[in-house]
Amino acid sequence: TKRPSLADDAYQTLRQEILGLVIAPRTELDEAALVHRFAVSRTPVREATQAALEEASARRDIAAAHLMADG
What we know:
The chain has 71 residues and is mainly α. Helices cover 72% and strands 0% of the residues. The protein is built from 3 helices and no strands. The mean pLDDT is 87.
């Protein structure tokens, strides 16, 4: 099996912290702080935050589509 990349690990941790409200809604993510907390370089943190933003955007799009279909 393939071992998760540093970006995958950082994404999973970031996602868990967001969903678990360790990171409050609408909090601006500080790249340097995440690099320090996750003990990885900037590139995995950038990839993780980009993936989290894409997931959030997709969730909003799905929710909006459901609202439009119901309305």
